[in-house]
Design goal:
It is a single chain. This protein is mostly helical and 146 residues long. The chain contains 8 helices and no strands. It is globular and about 40 Å long. The N and C termini lie far apart (52 Å). 15% of the residues are buried.
């Protein structure tokens, strides 16, 4: 049997599931070390990998790009219902609104601006107190690395 090509291997459900587990472990490590931007990116990437793995089991087309909402639409209805209904709906909406593949290119200041300015139409609004608390936590993490 010939070896799988790089593209076919990257879209194999088993490989994607393992990658999702590795990415969430990497994300936890990054956040633990105060690397918020890469932690946020890797967390969303882990979700994308899981959704792709689920879709890939019944549909090999790889055409939803990096859009979590589009990947979810291609998943079984039971998963769609679970993620878009209470108690997970709010968390899914926050993730789907805030995460995008291009965040890997943002600096810490760029990420703070992205979150603060609400550059994504569906992002959750923080209360003034929550926003100040979040900025303080991020500032403490930045000082640790300096």
């Amino acid at each position: 049997m010939p070896p799988l090509s790089h593209t076919k291997l990257a879209h194999d459900s088993r490989v994607l599931l393992k990658a999702s587990i590795e990415r969430i472990m990497d994300a936890r490590s990054a956040v633990h070390n105060g690397q918020w931007v890469i932690g946020m990116y890797l967390s969303g990437l882990a979700v994308e990998c899981v959704l792709q793995a689920i879709v890939g089991r019944h549909d090999p087309r790889h055409d939803a790009r990096h859009d979590l909402t589009q990947w979810l639409k291609r998943c079984p209805t039971s998963l769609q219902d679970a993620l878009t209904s209470p108690p997970l709906r709010d968390q899914w909406n926050i993730l789907a609104a805030r995460w995008y593949n291009g965040m890997r290119y943002l600096s810490e200041d760029g990420m703070l601006g992205y979150l603060r300015d609400g550059s994504r139409a569906r992002r959750q609004r923080w209360t003034t107190r929550d926003s100040k608390d979040q900025r303080a936590r991020l500032a403490r993490g930045s000082r640790k690395r300096s």
